[in-house]
Each structure stands twice: as C-alpha cells, then as structure tokens.
Specification:
The complex is a heterodimer of chains A (202) and B (553).
Chain A: H1 4-17, H2 22-37, H3 42-52, E1 67-74, H4 76-85, H5 87-93, E2 95-102, H6 108-118, E3 122-126, E4 129-134, E5 138-141, E6 151-159, H7 168-178, H8 187-192
Parallel strand pairs in A: 1-2
Antiparallel strand pairs in A: 2-6, 3-4, 3-6, 4-5
Helix pairs in contact in A: 1-2, 4-6
Chain B: H1 8-11, H2 14-17, H3 27-35, E1 39-47, E2 53-61, E3 64-72, E4 91-97, H4 102-111, E5 124-132, H5 134-145, H6 152-158, E6 160-168, H7 192-216, H8 226-230, E7 233-238, H9 245-248, H10 250-268, H11 275-293, H12 300-323, H13 331-342, H14 345-356, H15 360-367, H16 386-396, H17 398-401, E8 413-417, E9 424-428, H18 443-454, H19 463-468, H20 474-485, H21 502-513, E10 516-520, E11 526-530
Parallel strand pairs in B: 6-7
Antiparallel strand pairs in B: 1-2, 2-3, 3-4, 4-5, 5-6, 7-11, 8-9, 10-11
Helix pairs in contact in B: 3-7, 5-7, 10-15, 11-12, 13-14, 16-20
The chains are: A alpha+beta (202), B alpha+beta (553).
C-alpha cells in the first residue's frame, strides 16, 4: 500500500512539474492526501487531470463573484487556491455558482479546508452529487462511486450559518433526562456542599 | 534574574548550528530513558555458520511490542558501499509494529533486503541497512575465535562493527504514516523508533560476531567482553539527503532548538547550584574530554575545529580551577558569559551541552516538547495584511534581507532531487544543467524576492488577495507566518551561497540525534558514531545516565 506521506510528496512533485508554483504544489499534495484519507479518489482524479492538462485549455477563476461562468472549463487547482485565499469575501456572498469546472473532486479539499478556517459548514452540489463539509473533520456525501469525475457543468456552493440542527424543544427534552444525574440538595448540603463561604464580603 | 533566550539571528547561522554537540536532550539518550523499563528479548536467531540468516529482537510493555527484524546477507567485497547509491548490504533491518507472524517474516524477507525498491506495509515503522566495518569485524571474529579479546586500541579508532547508510521512517516505501502512531506516549520524542532500530541493530552486531566466531572455532572461541561491547556503537554515513530535512520541517527545527535554548536559559537563571550538581557538571566535563581527544578524522576542516575545541576546553578548565568560584551566584550564567567572550562556537556549544547534565528536572519536561504537528500550521492566514507580513520579514529575516542575490557567489548553488536515487543533491547553477528543476530550499533568496514583491503593495492589502497574482511566492509566505510564531524555525543563512558547508546542516541534525565523533569525508557527507558507551539492552533496568562520557574510547 502506498502511504499517505508518499502520496503527498509525489503529488507535490508532479504538480510542480506541470508548471504550478511550489507553494501551490504543496497545497495540492496536502489536498490529495486529504482526499485519499476521506476515502475519495484523489490519485485517480489528479492523475487523469494531469494527463490532459494544458495551461491554455483551462480558464482560471481569479476573482470570485456570485456567478462564475466560463465557456472553457475552469482549472480546479487555481479555482481551489483562489477560493481558499478569497474565502472571507466569498463567505459574505453566502452562495456562489460555478459553471464548468474540470475535475471537481480536486476542488473539494480546498472547500473542506475553507470550512475549517471559516468555522462554517459548507454545502456543495456538483451536478447531482452532494457534499457537506464539516470543518475539515468529515465530509458527508451521496457520492460513493470512487470514479473519476472529469467535469461538472454546474456547481452550487453555500456557506451554512452556524445554527443548531435540532429544535429548542428537542434540546429541552434531552436536558431534562440529563438532570436525572443531579442530586437533590438538602438544606445542609446547600450550605456546605459548595465549599465556599456563605458571604463573599470577608 | 531573567535571562533572554538567545537571539535566532545570532544562533541560527549555519556555522553556529554546525557547532552543536550531543546533550541530555539528544534523541538516543531520551530513547533509552523512555524504554529502560520495557522488556527486551531476543526472539529469533537463525543464522548459518557464516552469520547469514534472520533474527528478531523486541521491546515489549503491556500490550505493545516493537520487533526489530534483521536479515544478514552474503555480499561480495566489491558490492559493499556506504553510499546511498548501493544496492546490496551486509544486513537489512525493519522495525515491525507488534510480533511478526511467519507470513510477515517471509514477506519482509522478500522486501527488506531490497530497501528502496522493496515495499513495506503500515505494520512496519522504520527501515534501514548497514555494512560491516570489514577490518574491525574480521579482526573481532579472528580474535574471538582464537579465544582472545580484540585489540581495543584498534576498535577505538573506528568505534563500531557496522555502520548504517540510511534509516527511513514516516511513510517512506510504504512504511506506516506518522499519524498512525503519533499518539503513543512512548514515542512523543522525535525519531524515537529510528533510535530503537539503531540500538537493537547494535545488539545484533554483537550477537552476530559472537555467533560467527563460535562456528569458526567452537573449541576455543570466547564471547566479546560486555565492557568492550558497551564501548562500541553503530556507525552511520550521512550525505546530503539529510540536509533539506531541517529546511523542510521548520516547526520541528524550532522545537528542537527551543528546547535547547529554554534549558540553557533556565540553567543560567539558577541562583545557587548544589555541590552535587556542580560535581556532575565537572565530572561530565572532565570525563567527556576523552571523546574529544579520541575524535579521529582526516578532515582538515574538522581537525581545525577539534584543535580549537581542545585548546578552548583546556582554557575553560583552567578558568574553572583558577579563576572561578561556584560559590558565585548564578554560576552557570557567569560561565556562559565567560565562554561567549573567550572561546569558539564549538566550545561554547560544548559547554552548553555539559551544563544540562545535572538538571534532569529541567531537561525531562522539555524532551516531550520536541515533536511537532506541522500540518496544524500549514494554512496561510489569508486575512492578515501586507503590513503585517512586511513587519515579520523586517523583524525575523533582517539578516537575510541584507544578502545581495545579484552577486553570483550568493546565488551559486541549487538543490535538486536526483533521478536515479530520488535523493536531494546540490550543484553549481552556473556549471551544471538542471537549475530549472530547483527544489524550494533557497529560502533566503525567495524571502528576499517576497520582500521586494510586497514593497510596492498597499499596507492594508489582504494576504489572500496578494497571493492571487503572486502564487510563485506562496511557499515563502507560508514560511514567514510560521516563523512569526516559531522563532527558531528558520536558518538565518544562505543555503545556496558559494560558502555553504552542507555538513553544518547535517551536523545540526545529528547532534540532536546524539551522534558523536563527526568525521566529515567531504563538505557534503560525514561519518558519525551512535550509542558508543551506551548500556546494553540487559543493562537497561539500571544504568548511568551520563553513559555517553563513560566510553573508554
């Protein structure tokens, strides 16, 4: 089995040899390791992308807007790097759309890492594949095939507000059950149990 | 009294870092301390009369076992090379996580002797190979087989029976990734499993030499005297492959140096030292001199340093005996201040190492802080500003910003990865092809480029925005923000200049390993010795913590 360390080093070198800078190569090495650790086909996708990669065949998203549309497919590496770098301003847009992104799985680790630094969950829809990024701790998805995804025509991305996934009532019910671990205090315990004095004026 | 940590701009120069010595913080010493109450066993020893075959040694505690699996092979003298480009070795080793099954041993037998072209699994933690020091090994076999102990004078000139030529870990060639084992308390210190491998290999070399001598002449053979064994270590040949490590792991480098500097600061702040502490300091200093006087090398560069060290140590001992009173308050601070004014870097750092010897309570807590989780600091803080970045560069890299990279001599070398061995190498960019494939190890030059690039940028510009058009500088932007938090993360020197001595980079790392007797064979590779004077595995329950100075060699 190839170790994650070998994956990171080899992908970093391969990315550099495709003409990207060392700094970007470091990001892509780290990302591919992350994809493989999450059980997503990072090596398959990056390998296939580099087979067809030619700088001029792809468009770059340099500055993100709410709607990012191109006739040529966007390079997922540059799109990802700039998404990460501009995540503060993008998160203010709350929701963005990208039309025509090549090898969208390579974009995914940038989104996952952004979820961590932004402290927000991010929901991503790649055509009919859905991904929920949980602060770079886990990825919840309906995509399980492990195949290469060469292109996506429509990507929707949404920064989710930090809200609870449950109702106040559900929380109260659970809290009430937790109270069964508490001890009912007698008058004496109320006086002595806390350890501190009854007044704080001495 | 509050002593400041030493200034990184002074300390992190390569000539200074290349003067470091082993200390109580060294990894091989902390490894022995950690594993002293583990159960040691020789589990398997199946060698033929020539000493070829397989052996297994282990350390166990509770439910955890680490097993060294050894394969000793027959090779011809022409095939024996201690360069990394060799393809056959006298012996090959791996440290297996747990007790290997027969299936594991057969799998490892097919792969471990092949080293870089074999494949290991997540069940293996480290990988290495070693060659005999033929003149020593054969002499020991001959002597023992005739019933005599070997000539210790001859042994002391070399100091080992075998030398390793590489020790790999952390995911190389399919070995377990660090994340699988990083939460194990016994390996919180860096390179602990690499140290275990080398230590158990040392025992294998003794068992093998005894075994061969016994088969050579069963009637007269004797075993190698344990006292002689204790005075033998394991040699190591190290080339440029190790040099980029300290550039590629800035936080780890910081944590090593910071531990050393914190120890020095705390020791200098001791107001009164007890008599026992002073005796330990003085005893270690005096006993250690034998390691300096028996430091053999043909290197003119190193011999000059050893000569100066010897003179300086004489001067220092004279000072201690004639002009210094340990009744003084803050005695170690006074010693340090004297050293700064009177002796060379080699001697200053030697004295710093010695000062640590009496102070277990200062050193022990620092040992476990010497690892790092570099991934935690990988993300670039995109919301910081150009003004903040400029401040970092001006305050943390001021020495580097003075270097003029337009001058040929400051831009002479480039680092690359060799195609045939996938190992780091260095070459002159004005004489050799390949600089287009330069590795990102010219940190000083690239930091200066970054400084120039941000010169005209608005102070308020966010780093994320700056990077949109400057991704060629992304790797050094990342480093600058790391260096902001970790003061000793960066070498404050030019790693591509014509005056670079790559062995300074090797020496720094090897001193933290605990190596002694640095023997440069050129400006790019050197030999060292590890575990010379160390207790044997059967001594571990009770041994002298200052064993490194008890070597008879």
């Amino acid at each position: 089995m190839i170790s994650f360390s070998e994956i990171e080093t080899t992908v970093k070198r391969a990315t550099k040899s495709m003409g990207f800078s060392w700094g970007i190569a470091e990001e892509v090495g780290k990302n591919t390791r992350l994809l493989e650790m999450f059980g997503l086909p990072g090596i398959k996708n990056i390998n296939q992308y580099f087979k067809i990669y030619n700088k001029d065949s792809f468009e770059n998203i340099n500055i993100y807007s709410r709607s990012n549309i191109s006739k040529k497919f966007y390079c997922p590496i540059i799109a990802g790097v700039n998404f990460f770098d501009q995540s503060s301003s993008i998160s203010e847009l709350k929701q963005i759309e990208i039309n025509n992104l090549a090898f969208p799985l390579l974009f995914i680790p940038f989104v996952s890492r952004t979820s961590e630094i932004a402290g927000k969950r991010i929901f991503l829809k790649v055509d009919n594949k859905e991904f929920l990024f949980n602060y770079n701790q886990s990825i919840y998805s309906n995509y399980l095939s492990g195949d290469i995804v060469e292109k996506s025509e429509k990507i929707n991305l949404q920064f989710l507000e930090n809200t609870n996934s449950f109702s106040e009532n559900e929380w109260s019910e659970l809290y009430k059950i937790s109270e069964d671990t508490f001890v009912e205090e007698t008058e004496e315990l109320k006086q002595k149990g806390a350890g501190a004095g009854l007044t704080d004026n001495d | 009294m509050n002593i400041e940590l030493r200034d990184p701009k002074y300390l992190m120069k390569l000539s200074k870092l290349g003067s470091f010595h082993q200390s109580k913080l060294s990894f091989l010493r902390s490894f022995l301390n950690e594993f002293k109450d583990w159960e040691y066993k020789k589990d398997l020893f199946e060698l033929n009369e020539k000493g070829h075959g397989r052996a297994v040694y282990s350390f166990s505690k509770k439910n955890r076992t680490y097993s060294l699996v050894c394969f000793a092979n027959e090779i011809s003298d022409e095939e024996r090379s201690d360069r990394v480009i060799a393809t056959k070795w006298d012996a090959a080793f791996t440290l297996h996580d747990g007790v290997p099954t027969k299936g594991d041993l057969d799998r490892l037998a097919r792969n471990v002797p092949k080293q870089e072209v074999g494949r290991l699994s997540y069940k293996e933690l480290t990988l290495s190979r070693a060659n005999k020091s033929l003149r020593i090994f054969n002499h020991v076999v001959e002597s023992l087989s005739k019933g005599n102990q070997p000539n210790t004078e001859l042994l002391s000139k070399v100091g080992y029976l075998y030398r390793t030529t590489a020790v790999y870990g952390s995911g190389k060639f399919g070995l377990a990734d660090r994340f699988r084992i990083k939460n194990r308390e016994e390996i919180y210190g860096p390179f602990r499993l690499e140290m275990m491998l080398v230590y158990l290999v040392r025992q294998f070399t003794f068992d093998q030499v005894n075994h061969i001598a016994r088969h050579k002449n069963p009637n007269t053979a004797v075993e190698l005297d344990p006292n002689i064994c204790r005075n033998l270590g394991i040699g190591n040949s190290t080339g440029l492959g190790m040099a980029p490590f300290i550039v590629n792991h800035p936080i780890l480098l910081n944590n090593w140096i910071l531990a050393r500097e914190t120890a020095l600061k705390k020791i200098r702040e001791i107001e009164k030292a007890s008599e026992q502490e002073l005796n330990i300091f003085k005893n270690c200093l005096v006993k250690s001199l034998i390691n300096v006087t028996n430091w053999n090398t043909d290197s003119e560069f190193q011999n000059k340093k050893i000569k100066k060290l010897t003179e300086d140590l004489e001067k220092f001992i004279k000072f201690l005996n004639q002009d210094f009173s340990f009744e003084n308050t803050f005695p170690f601070n006074k010693i340090y201040m004297w050293a700064e004014e009177n002796v060379s870097d080699e001697c200053i750092e030697y004295i710093v190492s010695m000062m640590m010897e009496p102070y277990d309570e200062i050193i022990s807590p620092l040992v476990n802080k010497m690892s790092s989780d570099e991934d935690q600091h990988f993300n670039i803080p995109i919301d910081r500003t150009i003004e903040e970045l400029r401040n970092i560069l001006e305050s943390k890299y001021s020495e580097i910003l003075k270097i003029d990279f337009k001058k040929k001599e400051n831009n002479q070398n480039f680092w690359f990865i060799s195609k045939n061995k996938e190992e780091p190498r260095m070459a002159n960019r004005y004489e050799m092809d390949g600089s287009i494939l330069e590795q990102p190890l010219a940190i000083a030059r690239d930091i200066k480029k970054l400084y120039e690039a941000i010169f005209t940028q608005k102070n308020s510009l966010k780093i994320g925005k700056f990077l949109t058009n400057n991704n060629d500088l992304r790797h050094v932007v990342r480093r600058a923000f790391i260096t902001e938090k970790f003061p000793y993360a960066e070498i404050q020197d030019n790693t591509i200049g014509s005056k670079l001595m790559p062995i300074d980079m090797l020496r720094l790392k090897l001193s933290f390993f605990g190596a002694i007797k640095f023997d440069p064979r050129s400006d790019k590779w050197l030999r060292i010795c590890m575990f010379q004077g160390a207790p044997l595995p059967t001594d571990l329950k009770s041994f002298d913590n200052h064993w490194v100075y008890s070597s008879l060699n």
